[in-house]
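2024-03-11 09:14:02 DEBUG pipeline.ingest accepted 1 chain
2024-03-11 09:14:02 DEBUG pipeline.ingest length=217
2024-03-11 09:14:03 DEBUG pipeline.predict start
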Amino acid sequence: MLSRRLRKITLLVGLLMAVPAEGQTPGCVPNGRSAGPTVSSPDGRYEVLKVFCSSQANERELALVLRNVQSGERRTLHTYDRDAGVTWSPDSRWIAISDFAGSDYTNNVVVSIDQGTPSIDLKQRLLESKPKERILKSDHLYLSASEWKSENEIQIIAWGHDSGRKRAFCRCFLVSLGGSIRECYLPVTGDDPEGYCGNIKKDVPPSAATPQTGTRQ
């Protein structure tokens, strides 16, 4: 009798873990095998694990899993199959995810430690900003959440090129959780702005970018 109950509990846990993160493809069951370093929250209460999935369809499918250090409770935040960066907000309430999904695009979201709070699509927010920047229409556009400037504002590095105009770029934006967007100054050096941004995307010094005047809604 006890063995039967244990099998039911195991099956239920497996089904719960198999539920994909919002907006992600189904089929990823995190198997616990590490795929990269753990990223701890500033207060030490949570950590984001990079683990492999058990999916047989895609051997490179990976998952970002939020773990409560005290209780051990886990929740899948995001699935990806190339590379992804994680940046915690100073108050340990939000996690910015930069998913370098393709050779010409990224997926960029902010998720809360509270499962009931909707995620924020940073890329969509930038693309819908007014007036729209011409670079945001480029066919090769990459975004990376490089650092939090406050508990409610995050710095986004945008880089890439437009095949039609043959123009490379490297820009900086400050995006608030409330929806406002400001452009910030980034001292790009050399004659390859796209390469410059690509090299600093995950570790921009706090003094490297400064806000410019003006706010976009």
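2024-03-11 09:14:41 DEBUG pipeline.report DSSP finds three helices and 14 strands in the chain.
2024-03-11 09:14:41 DEBUG pipeline.predict end
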